Amino acid sequence: MAYDLEEQEKLDAIKAWWARYGTLVVTLAAAVALAWGGWWGWKAYQAHRANQAMGYFEALEDAARLGGADSAVRIKTAAATLREEYPATGYAARGALVAAQALQAQKDEAGAREQLEWLAAQGKNPSMQSVARLRLAGMLLDQKQYDAALGQLNNPPPAFAALYADRRGDILAAQGKREEARAAWQSAIDGLGTANPLTQVVQLKLDALSGA
């Protein structure tokens, strides 16, 4: 009999606890289930988006590699789709670089510059942005837009400091600013180190400047 009373007291305590907290428990469980399902749904959506972006990137690469009469149009169309619809996938930045190189090879300087200018303005992918700024500075140098070219080389990230210094030297030399060019190239050599093959190239430019 005592056992039955004890069991009844436990049941009553459970019922009372459930009456007080049952709704909260159910609500929390539902919230956790929804959050878990939402997280997996988001992951699946992101994977789907990445696959779509990869498809456009591969189409861009094919157009750049195969060429053809309408390749420039196909390159620009694929690159624009990546920029507008898949800017956060990483394929947009890579696509801009591939497109810029292909369009420049086809003598479409305006199209190539557009790709690089877009990427140079993107801060979410610092390494690709730095590459775009470096290449854009080179293109502007070829077009003799020296001030604009130098403007792309401000505040270089540490990993690109030596490369930016080398390009700055090229621009300053083209402007006839010999001492500033010499200082920039020497900075590039110091940053690259003796083991880097590019050091020899910069040294040749520095020697040519000294012998001129």
From TrEMBL:
Task: Report the membrane topology from the UniProt record.
Answer: Single-pass type II membrane protein
Keywords, alphabetical: Cell membrane, Chaperone, Membrane, Transmembrane, Transmembrane helix
The answer, when asked if Membrane is one of the entry's keywords, is yes
SUPFAM superfamilies documented for this protein: TPR-like
Grouped into one coarse class, the protein's main location is membrane
Q: Which GO terms describe its molecular function?
A: protein-containing complex binding
InterPro entries referenced in this protein's UniProt entry, alphabetically: SecYEG/CpoB_TPR, TPR-like_helical_dom_sf, YfgM
Q: Where in the cell is it found?
A: Cell membrane
Gene Ontology cellular-component annotations: plasma membrane
Q: Give all residue intervals belonging to the Ancillary SecYEG translocon subunit/Cell division coordinator CpoB TPR domain.
A: 15-210
Query: Matching Gene3D superfamilies, A to Z?
Result: Tetratricopeptide repeat domain
Which sequence ranges are marked TM in the entry?
21-42
Annotated family? Belongs to the YfgM family.
Listed name of the protein: Ancillary SecYEG translocon subunit
Q: Which organism is it from?
A: Achromobacter agilis
